[in-house]
Write a structure and sequence with these properties.
- The protein is of the alpha/beta class.
- It has twelve helices and 13 strands.
- The chain has helices at 46-49, 58-62, 67-72, 87-94, 113-122, 134-139, 179-188, 193-215, 220-231, 253-275, 346-358, 362-369; strands at 8-9, 23-27, 34-40, 50-51, 74-75, 81-82, 98-105, 151-152, 239-244, 282-288, 308-313, 321-323, 344-345.
- The strands form three sheets. Strands 2, 3, 7, 9, 10, 11, 12 and 13 form an eight-stranded mixed sheet that branches.
- The radius of gyration is 21 Å and the shape is globular.
- The two termini are 32 Å apart.
Length: 384
């Protein structure tokens, strides 16, 4: 259970399904709206997720390697089809609660995962330019209740680092202390205003960590359910980040990407189910550090690319559509002759979505979240 304090939670859930291994972090704000950022670490293939089946070049570039996926994909419009393993996302699309954006990218244009993720999380124009993360800056735009943040993790994700205070806690591998010992230490600190408060924080966090252990996140759906439990209570979290890995598909992409997308789909579905009516006040953003090459390599995979796909889910999303200024896949249209050319800016999409979700001024939100990026143009109309 959560108390009055704002908090951040993070920690490795090592027993999750292979390939997903999500980690989670949470923050509190004095608002009824929830925001969840799911980062796809490893450069998820947007062309395999949101297939441009209406592009004349797509079939020749991907048809042989991914024919089954293309044949079974859910047709979204005249150009795009969704991977067949994303059945729940397709249902949300039909309910106009899912919106997909294609040929999108952060300012990063090289091919290092670490640098690309740093740009994605800090909201900088280049790697390591900014020291704090755009999610921490987002907290500065939201109403606060004066509570202090607590992190249940050895490290805090880069996106959540910044001036808003985050204390850390790393679950120990040592045997648990007995209840009797904890009670005696509590009594010892009872008369010390400073130490008693710190000890109370530690005990609250310990209880929280115990709840996490009980659920133990066996798979991606369990992770989504667990996140919903932490976001749902009246005094619970309001901002969350879920880190997923395993998207770096240099070989054997067909099976691996399918499994990854199935897990992501289950996670979003579990979030929706767990939040119940609160889903109407929830925005889920899914994004990756960069895309993958258009052509398939010799081992049935794809290599580091540029343009990618991003997703928005939630009851307030103005969904049921795909946003794309589609550049085409003909050789002359590719970025550096090999990648999907980005035509939309991820920072503009995030700024527009967050502003719409929290009823913020888009320009102010863009300037606060991405202060080092010039020529901002937040994408409007993403939220109903």
């Amino acid at each position: 259970m959560f108390d009055r304090r704002s908090f951040l939670i993070g920690g490795a859930l090592s027993t999750l399904a292979a390939g997903m291994a999500p980690r989670m972090a949470f923050a509190r704000a004095a608002t009824e709206r929830r925001f969840v950022f799911i980062i796809q670490r490893g450069a998820a293939d947007g062309l395999g997720t949101l297939m441009p089946v209406g592009d004349p070049a797509f079939a020749s570039l991907r048809g042989n390697a991914f024919a089954d996926d293309i044949a079974g994909a859910t047709k979204l419009d005249a150009m795009f089809a969704l991977h067949p393993n994303m059945t729940n996302a397709a249902a949300l699309y039909r309910k106009r609660q899912a919106l997909f954006v294609h040929a999108i990218a952060s300012p990063y244009r090289d091919r290092s995962h670490f640098d690309g993720q740093n740009v994605l999380e800090t909201g900088g124009a280049s790697a390591y330019q900014a020291k704090d993360g755009w999610m921490n800056r987002l907290l500065g735009l939201l109403p606060q209740d004066g509570a202090r943040a607590i992190a249940v993790s050895a490290t805090v994700p880069t996106a959540l680092r910044g001036p808003h205070e985050v204390a850390s806690y790393a679950p120990s591998v040592l045997p648990d202390a007995s209840d009797d010992l904890l009670q005696r230490v509590t009594m010892l600190y009872q008369g010390d205003a400073q130490l008693h408060e710190l000890w109370s924080d530690a005990m609250d966090t310990r209880q929280l960590a115990g709840d996490l252990a009980q659920d133990n996140g066996r798979n991606a759906a369990a992770t989504g359910s667990l996140a919903a439990k932490l976001l749902l209570p009246a005094d619970g979290a309001r901002v969350a980040m879920i880190e997923t890995g395993g998207w770096d598909t240099h070989s054997g992409q067909k099976g691996r990407l399918g499994a990854q997308l199935k897990g992501l789909d289950a996670m979003v579905a579990a979030l929706q189910a767990g939040l119940g009516p609160v889903w109407n006040d929830t925005l889920v953003l899914v994004a990756t550090e960069f895309g993958r090459t258009v052509a398939v390599n010799g081992t049935g995979g794809t290599d580091h690319g540029t343009g990618a796909a991003a997703m928005l889910f939630g009851g307030g999303v103005k969904g049921g559509r795909v946003l794309a200024d589609w550049p085409g896949l003909a050789p002359a249209a590719l970025y550096e002759g090999r990648d999907l050319k980005p035509t939309m800016r991820l920072d503009d999409m995030i700024a527009g979505a967050v502003a719409g979700h929290y009823a913020l001024d888009p320009e102010r939100a863009g300037a606060a979240l991405f202060p080092v990026i010039d020529q901002r143009a937040p994408i409007m109309g993403l939220m109903a």
